[in-house]
Amino acid sequence: MPALWIAHVTVTDTEAYGKYAELAGPAIAAHGGTFIARGGRYVQLEGKERPRNVVAKFPSVEAAEECYHSDAYQEALNHARGASERELLVVEITD
After folding, report:
1. By C-alpha distance, which of 44, 47, 53 is closest to 84?
2. Crossing angle for the helix pair 71-80 and 14-30, nearest 10 degrees?
3. pLDDT-derived band of residue 95, with 50, 70 and 90 as boundaries?
């Protein structure tokens, strides 16, 4: 079953986070991920507001997890740590 990778982010260091984004995109694509939403318009209805919201679709929960734990994504993530406050989850798509 396909899955969605959903990130809610507040960027605190634009330069460092830009490096994360530059490296994360190819790492996500290498695991079959495609972006559905990336920093577009949003409406916060509940919970903590984060001004950057990203949704990527993966072939499965396992593919999304493999991406997260991959060397390429972890290298990207090193640039996001300390440059952002984030929540990230993966949820399986059900019909």
Report:
1. 53
2. 160
3. confident
Q: Is the pLDDT of residue 39 over 90?
A: no
Task: Enumerate the domain spans of the chain.
Answer: 3-92
For 3-92, CATH number out of 2.60.40.420, 3.20.20.140, 3.30.70.100, 3.40.50.1220 equals 3.30.70.100
What are the backbone dihedrals phi and psi of residue 33, each rounded to the nearest 5 degrees, phi first? -85, 140
Where does the pLDDT of residue 92 fall: very low under 50, low under 70, confident under 90, or very high at 90 and above?
very high
Q: Tokens in use for 67?
A: 């991406």
Q: Answer with the residue of higher pLDDT: 40 or 72.
A: 72
The pLDDT value given to residue 82: 92
